[in-house]
Amino acid sequence: MTDQVAALPGDGAEDISECVRQVSISPPPLPSFLLSLSPCSRLSLPFFPILRLLLSPPLSDRTHTLSPSLPSAISGSRLSTGDDATAARAARYLFQKAHAADKHNKENKEKMGRRGAVNALCSILRSGSVEARYQACSALSELAYQNENICMAIINAPGCLESIRILLQEQDGNNHEDAALVINNCAAFSQHTPIHIVQYPGMLEAIRSIANGRHVGARNAAISALNCISRSIEAAQVLLHARIVEEVLTPILSEKGRGEKYEARVARAVLAIANIMGAKGGYEICAPVLAKYPNHLEMTVNILGHSLDGLKWAGILFALYSVIIPMSHLSAIKENQGKLVELGMIDKLARVLREWQPGHLSDSVMERALLIILSINDHPEFQHRIRLSGLIAGLQQIKLGLRNEPPKCRALAEQLLSSLLQCHVAFCMGQHPRLGADSPLLLLDDFLSSLVIDMAFQ
């Protein structure tokens, strides 16, 4: 997959009346709010064909042909003032169908993506109704959640980024938080969208302004968006040059406060700074900032532990990759390694490898975890802790590749195993009558020798 944002399949043009005519065959039930409208009113609503398409059975179960595309006239239409209330309710309906509470949410999202819901929702962002804009933002955020294709479709939708930028810069601030959450999810669930976001004219300045604003909800959403954006090394480079670290993130670490929202804001700032530290020239800017906040290492390890246990930290359920990425940069600093090991990082990384499952960015999680351990394994003082963590069993599992581990990770696991399992060779050499004649092992009593044997052959 390239860095280019690709359009979803099924972006053709089709006459509205023909689309509605085809769907009218064996029509599905309609939501109650649409049933209250007259037939003429229904056909005049840009969202009516979308809902009919979404409520229709899967195409494979239909006895007639239905084009998978939504009419371009629908997806690009501008809603009139009289349609705002209905558009808001329709957008809310799409949100509900995309939400995790709906057991068919994944299938629903794919259907919405194919049939033009993204473009139609983006058109509502230009509505004069605060409620309609709010519902459209909510639906877009939910569609983007854990769906990379939808994230890319939102970024690529004509005029969508411009509409979001306008919402972020509106004076009344009614939709600041809602628009920031769309950006947040698009950046969180796609590796390729962050660079498009930060390169869009005026977008980064709009996010910066809200992150430095006074509205707590909007501010937290903007800082969360910056954290998600910073996971992309290309976007992190842009953030570094834009002085986001000095002008937005650093002041957060010196704030005084309490409560979940405050702790979440600080945690996201710490993780974002650690992400940006991986950019070229980032160490010189970010390392001194984090050094002044002595709890940043402990916080990162604790968040990783919460993520592994499926628990929320400061009200947030952090995904594994959102913690492993900044941790990989923090552990690259030699001065941090001893403290991270002391805080239990190795034990948690061993769990990451043992409990790994294929999923969003899971290959990257495994690779980064292995690289962290590989860098620490170079230091003999940490090798005993590595063995005690049960890591060797996890590495042997990866080497076998029974969970479809990526080839690069299997090679890294084999490299680590080769290094960790050489201790028995040294022990045997120490017992050799010629090679081990001067070995200090011969000075140990039986009890200590048994301990050495246990560690050498585990």
Contiguous uncertain segments of 5+ residues: 1-46, 57-82
Question: Could you state the oligomeric state of the chains shown?
Answer: single chain
Counted by DSSP, the helix tally is 29
Helix content: 55-70%
Q: Assign the structural class, choosing from mainly alpha, mainly beta, alpha/beta, alpha+beta, or little secondary structure.
A: mainly alpha
Rounded mean pLDDT is 81
**What profile does the largest beta sheet have?**
none
- The portion of residues forming beta strands comes to under 5%
Could you tell me the radius of gyration in angstroms?
27 Å
DSSP strand tally:
0
Give the CA-CA distance, first to last residue.
42 Å
> What does the overall shape look like?
elongated
List the helices and strands in order: HHHHHHHHHHHHHHHHHHHHHHHHHHHHH
Plain-language structure description:
Helix content is about 65%, strand content about 0%. It is mostly helical and about 450 residues long.
Keywords for this entry:
single chain, 458 residues, mainly alpha, 29 helices, 66% helix, elongated, disordered N terminus
Task: Note the topology.
Elements lengths: L15 H8 L8 H4 L3 H6 L3 H8 L16 H4 L8 H15 L6 H10 L2 H8 L5 H15 L3 H9 L3 H10 L6 H13 L4 H7 L3 H9 L4 H15 L2 H9 L2 H10 L6 H17 L5 H10 L4 H13 L11 H11 L3 H9 L2 H10 L7 H16 L2 H9 L2 H10 L6 H14 L2 H9 L14 H12 L1
Task: State the gist of this model.
Helices cover 66% and strands 0% of the residues. With 458 residues, it is mainly α. It is elongated and about 90 Å long.
